[in-house]
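Board notes (copied after class):
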Amino acid sequence: MIKKMKKAMFAGSFDPITNGHLDIICRSARIFDELQIGVLFNPNKKGLFTFEERVNLIKSCTVHLDNVKVVSFNGLLVDYCEENGIDTLVRGVRSGADVEYELQMAHMNKELNPNIETVILPTTTKYSFISSSLIKEVLAFDADIKNLVPKEVLEELKRKTNRGK
């Protein structure tokens, strides 16, 4: 049995949340006592979903996980973690390119706050090709994405774009 560890943070823009994200969330929730999902707000990015819609979609997709909390914040992730007693960042990776990027981020975060560790989880193979960007791209061609996003997200995508299958 895996010993649970304190509080962790899984942060991202989640525009939209995918089954790959949900896989990392569910697996992390089994490892940590509390998992916060940090929805990042970037005023320079125009997303498909509004900030509030993303937060609400994640909440609806994780309602069955009693140790998961959806939060939002501005500023540096490590500062938020320090202020809220979070000692571990969770990152999901799909490929070697993701690993390289996440290692750079882990080193930077460690430089900014040596008390915060990063745990990198490989995505389950069946979700290894999914990204929010790719979901939006194939949706523009009316592709069937029902196996790639949670049911709640698919319904909102259909409503928002009149395309999702």
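Comment from the instructor: The helical segments are 19-31, 51-61, 77-83, 96-112, 132-139, 151-161. The radius of gyration is 16 Å.
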